[in-house]
Design a protein that fits this description.
single chain; alpha/beta; Rossmann fold; Dihydrodipicolinate Reductase, domain 2; six-stranded parallel sheet; six-stranded mixed sheet; 8 helices; 14 strands; 30% helix
Length: 342
């Protein structure tokens, strides 16, 4: 079977990764349409050797599609995702619009693939830092029973789209050329700096990005009483997020057993040899499908605890790859309606 597929937000950083990822993984697409705002309509995109003419994403377009992957922000998703679903088009949404909706599955295919069966036309993709952290934590949860997480993220500028990447590159260029550094994407310069501020601040002092780590982790893992305290930090890295984690478990957690559990889990690998200075780094996990886990050791602060470090590509496992894996899951389980197949 093959499907008529649309990418909403095709001109953005994740949208272009989605097009390449669908081709790279040979998703059975009979056709692939690039959709975006009215101001982008008519633009030409080239990806994976193919050329696409961008079309305006309107409700009527979705009647001609079997599957649409949204990556254009929560506002666009709230406006168009249900319109698409009402027209029989299955939506995989990469925004925060529906993640905590009880009627919308929030899915990491390696962790909770069974959740897709309960969809009502929309399936949500998790936040990037949540996805990367859980790829390390879930195999440990299965081995030891996860109870509590303390985390600090090291989030690349790719999380802000092309604008963040361009701003970092321009600031570095300006510094080399002894020109003034200007900031517009972030409240301060990001080059040679770190910002303990990702997303808007909430009344309790946490940011919305930090709250996502708590609420999304509970929904995906099914651990309703999971405790998570997180500080999200933007760093001057172009691509791939990292997360420093201290986790507490119900049962004694041994570092060797932890490495074994991670090695057996799909989509993640151990990169952990302190004697050889081997540990995951954003440079090495950019444009790679697996996430890397290292620095695995007993926590010095938590009972039955482990400390670890994970790196993963924000544009791939944190966004495009996970969305395409959801699409593949829908395909293999026959969850894209028969009458919409090409």
């Amino acid at each position: 079977m093959s499907y008529r597929v649309g990418i909403v937000g095709a001109t953005g950083a994740v949208g272009q990764e989605l097009i390449e990822m669908l081709r790279k993984r040979s998703f059975p697409a009979a056709s692939l349409r690039a959709l975006a705002s009215a101001r982008s309509a008519g633009k030409q995109l080239e990806s994976a050797g193919e050329h696409y003419c961008v079309e305006e994403a309107t409700p009527e377009v979705f009647a001609q599609l079997d599957l649409a992957i949204f990556s254009a922000g929560a506002g666009v998703s709230r406006r168009l995702a249900r319109e698409a679903a009402d027209r029989g088009c299955i939506v995989v949404d990469n925004s925060s619009a529906f993640r905590m909706d009880d009627q919308v599955p929030l899915v990491i295919p390696e962790i909770n693939p069974e959740a897709v069966a309960g969809h009502h036309g929309i399936i949500a993709n998790p936040n990037c830092s949540t996805a990367i952290a859980l790829m390390a934590l879930f195999p440990l949860h299965r081995a030891f029973g996860l109870r509590r997480v303390f985390a600090s993220t090291y989030q690349a500028v790719s999380g802000s789209g092309w604008q963040g990447i361009v701003e970092l590159e321009e600031q570095v260029r300006a510094w080399v050329e002894s020109r003034p550094l200007t900031a517009s994407v972030y409240p301060y310069q990001i080059a040679f700096n770190v910002l303990p501020h990702v997303d808007r601040f909430l009344e309790d002092g946490y940011t919305n990005e930090e709250a996502k780590m708590l609420h999304e982790s509970r929904k995906i893992t099914g651990i309703s009483d999971l405790r998570v305290s997180c500080t999200c930090v933007r760093v001057p890295v172009l691509r791939a997020h990292s997360v420093s984690i201290d986790a507490e478990f119900e049962r004694p957690a041994d570092p060797d057993a932890a490495r074994e559990a991670i090695e057996k889990f799909p989509g993640v690998e151990v990169c952990d040899d302190p004697a050889s200075n081997r540990y995951p780094m954003p440079r090495d996990y950019s444009e790679r499908e697996p996430c890397g886990v290292g620095r695995i050791r007993r926590s010095a602060a938590l009972d039955n605890g482990l400390a670890l470090w994970v790196s993963g590509d924000q544009l791939w496992k944190g966004a495009a790859l996970n969305a395409v894996q959801i699409a593949e899951l829908l395909h293999t389980r026959g969850l894209i309606p028969q009458h919409h197949r090409a």
